Amino acid sequence: MTLYRDSALVLRTWKLGESDRIVSMLGQESGKIRAVVKGVRKTKSRFGSRLEPLSLVSILCWKGRELDVVSQAETIELFRAIREDLDRLYKANIILEATEQIAQERFSEPELFKLVVRVLRILDTDNPQMLLGSFIWKLLALQGYRPQMTTCVICGSSNSKVGFDAAMGGVLCGEHANGRRVSSEALDVISKSLDGRLAQILKIENSPVVSETESLALRALESVLERNLRTVRSHIIRH
Ligand SMILES: [Zn+2]
Fold first, then answer.
1. C-alpha 177 – ligand 1 centre gap (Å)
2. How far is the CA of 162 from the centre of ligand 1 (A)?
3. From the CA of 228, how far away is ligand 1's center (Å)?
């Protein structure tokens, strides 16, 4: 078996048998990794507690055929401010779940790792309102999802862009928008997010465009994944 070292963000964990755990991580070089942590629930496990969701760790792993095996783990960053604030934690859980769903196993995506860690660092220090919405649009753009933003997806008209439908793949004109209305500010934010102009967008504060962009982004993500996100659904049920 080969041994490898990487920096990785823990996305999700599952119990495995009596005392082991499976950890899903996004490695800087390795892409999405699923690895077994042995004896994590025994008190003598030295590093098991470091492998909790939302921890950035330095790992040493044995490569396995299906699951790798974690040999060592050291904490790099814990994102403490996120863990202590329910609003930030909710956003972080969506970020982790979306990343876990969209990343392909053992497919190296250093750009994706860079984006997710950068966004979590911003959330940890600053929590700008537009962060979650713009992250999701950028995440989708990285995966090749490019909605048509300048002409109506049905008729090709560029006269009036008043609607948006994620599943149809872009903007809609006045004639074809029906109930799928969207503000021009939200369309502007989506375009800028897809282009990665994060710094510019993050200055937008507390306006209806924040929630509009966020819900359009979540709908687009769910249509790309063809499933609902657990985090979003459980949040809606709770409120
Ligand atoms: Zn049209």
1. 7
2. 10
3. 28
pLDDT score for 50: 86
pLDDT band at 49 (very low <50, low <70, confident <90, very high): confident
Residues with CB under 5 A from ligand 1 (ion): 152, 154-155, 157, 173, 176
- Cα–Cα distance measured from residue 10 to residue 90, given in angstroms and rounded to the nearest whole number: 16
Count of domains forming the chain: 2
Whether residues 140 and 226 share a domain: the answer is yes
Do 36 and 22 form a contact (C-beta atoms < 8 A)?
yes
- Which of the pair, 56 or 18, is modelled with greater confidence? 56
Q: Is residue 12 included in any domain, yes or no?
A: yes
Mean predicted confidence (pLDDT) in 106-124: 96
In a domain, 169, yes or no: yes
In this structure, is residue 101 part of a structural domain? no
Q: Supply 187's token pair.
A: 């369309």
What torsion do the CA atoms of 68, 74, 76, 79 make, to the nearest 10 degrees? 80
Task: Please give the distance, rounded to the nearest whole angstrom, from the Cα atom of residue 183 to the centre of ligand 1.
Answer: 16
Quote the ligand 1 centre to 174 CA distance (angstroms): 7
pLDDT band of 10, cuts 50, 70, 90: very high
Residue 92 domain-assigned (yes or no): no
Percent of the chain with pLDDT over 90: 72
Q: Separation of 72 CA from ligand 1 center, angstroms?
A: 56
Q: List C-alpha distances in Å: 201 to 29, 43, 210, 213.
A: 28, 46, 10, 11
Q: Say which CATH number the domain at 32 has.
A: 2.40.50.140
- Residue 174 sits in which domain range? 128-238
Measure 88 CA to ligand 1 centroid, in angstroms.
Answer: 39
More confident of the two residues 179 and 134: 134
Residues 66 and 132 in one domain: no
pLDDT at 239: 45
Spacing, Cα 224 to ligand 1 middle (Å): 22
